[in-house]
Design a protein that fits this description.
Layout (H helix, E strand, L loop, with lengths): L9 H25 L5 E5 L3 E5 L5 E7 L4 E6 L2 E7 L8 E3 L6 H13 L10
Antiparallel strand pairs: 1-2, 2-3, 3-4, 4-5, 5-6
């Protein structure tokens, strides 16, 4: 079933994109508080989230406002996620595979961080 993508303007994009970054950051902080998982999280100008792992690898997520995309850079490569949701149900999909942003991010955090990480049901 194909869902209709609701058009958003740049300010709405920034709102929903920052909510996505906040969700990831909050879940990483929760994991830090409830386990021995240690990760450095840095937010740059509200548009970039850097996640540095103890093994010195980094995941970077940044906003591409003109394109209404979130870009993910991992040890395994780069990924672009296009706005594909509605204001009621924000969603981001990989521009090539249509995979869900949160599922892909969680998978890469699990791989690079060496600890199970899940964002399913939080978005």
């Amino acid at each position: 079933m194909q869902t209709t993508v609701e058009k958003i303007d740049d300010s709405e994009f920034k709102l929903y994109a920052n909510q996505a970054l906040d969700l990831i950051e909050d879940e990483l902080e929760r994991l830090f508080e409830t386990s021995d998982f240690d990760v450095d999280i840095e937010r740059q100008g509200g548009n970039v989230l850097n996640i540095q792992f103890p093994n010195h690898t980094v995941i970077v997520i940044n906003l591409q406002t003109p394109l209404h995309e979130l870009w993910l850079a991992t040890k395994e490569g780069g990924f672009h996620f296009r706005w594909a949701g509605s204001k009621v149900k924000p969603k981001w999909q990989d521009t090539k595979t249509q995979e869900d942003f949160f599922a892909v991010v969680a998978s890469h955090i699990t791989k690079q961080g060496g600890i199970p990480f899940n964002l399913t049901g939080l978005a």
